[in-house]
Amino acid sequence: MPIILNFLNPTELGIWYILMGLNIIANILECGFQPVVIRYIAYYLSLKEENEKENILNLLGSIKQIYKNLSKILFIILIVFGSFYLKDILIQNFKIKIIWIIYIITLTYQLSFSYLISILNGYGKIASSNKTIAYSKILSNMLMLSFLILRLNLLGLVCANLLGVFILRYLLYREIKYLNITKLLENKNYKGKICKKLYREAFKMGIVSISQFLNTKYIFFLFGRYFSLEIIARYGVTIQLFELLTKLSRLPIDIYIAKLSQMIYKEKYKKAFDYYKFILVIIIFIYIVGGSILIKYGNIVLEIVGKNQLLETKILFFLYFYYLIEIIYGVSTYFLTTFKFLDFYKSFFISGIFCSVAATLGMIYFEFDMLDVIKIQIISQLLYNFWKWPLEIYRRYLKYEKNR
User: Fold this and answer.
1) What's the rounded Cα separation, in Å, for the pair 52 and 362?
2) CA 222, 249, 136, 36 torsion: positive or negative?
């Protein structure tokens, strides 16, 4: 990411971050299914029934078909609504149109095989999954650097992105072969009954994804309509670093979620709660340390590697607090999914609506600045989600202790 700061001007950087922001559409479509798929695979593997192979065949066939449908939906959304959103940028020149078409192909193709990541995680091969993603990112970044040196700029970035997706698919299929399920994935003789169950549960998780979009990514698109591309570039760099830190901090729960699911299915509640408490402490520690380093040294590092800057320190502190809140209730609700508890989708959706409407009205009628909008984001989560879902876990723990 810092590499591109040396090659792109602020306008190009702003366009790049707007394109990157459109990734959220794919994430919204997929995120509803990803945790559900992981949980179902962990569940069927823990049963060890005689018809386990048939169950896995039906599950994998359903998953593959679902992701094909999702990729078609994504393609239509990007072509129609994405092009409308970017119409002011697309009319600038023909090269931007080519860049947009390549980016559409990249996002659509990546979503079509993203179920492979969920399958690896469901089988407990989280380390292999993360390693594969890391390798593809490294190779993609090397291609980006090569194309940027050749002065291909934005066109080079999207081409490197597309090639990185091809590399990711190849590496994922290589890991899948070690699970000996390649023939099951290629088998089309599966019963689609389980699709209904997946769609039902994924719908609720999809609402959660939409809510997260309204709470965070919608704000990015809102800022894109009211601030210059230079400001958007600074905001994009800042958010990308905080989201990277959040993703790194959450690695422990991502690694152990399949194991936690199996513990719950086998009714090893005490062990599961102990794991959860330990994981949450580790995650918060990683984030606090990493966030402190980011705020203190972020601009110094960016001055060395590029031309861009983070947002003002005051805004950084508010973002730091916001993402800490998001981590705490996000990890809690992720753990609650192992109990097949998904009722939090309602409060997520309400807080998302509140945040997006309040931010929009504030910017249109009351001239809210960036800090005002970030405060709305914080308030929308503090009102309910921040305390409710950790408390729900504590209540379940007390209930378990009482019934021992």
Assistant:
1) 54
2) negative
Q: Which residue has the tokens 């794919």?
A: 26
- How many domains, the chain? 1
Measured CA to CA, the distance from residue 201 to residue 41 in angstroms comes to 14
Instruction: Give the whole-angstrom CA distance, residue 53 versus residue 60.
Output: 10
CA dist., res. 220 & res. 235, Å (int): 8
Total-model pTM: 0.70
**If we measure between CA atoms, which residue out of 319, 317, 296 comes closest to residue 240?**
319
Tokens representing 198 are 């997946």
For residue range 11-58, what is the model confidence (pLDDT) as tens digits?
777 778 778 777 777 777 776 677 777 777 777 776 655 455 666 767
Residue with tokens 């590092």: 301
Within 123-192, residue ranges assigned H as helices are 126-149, 153-177, 182-186
125 SS3 class: coil
Domain containing 231 equals 2-403
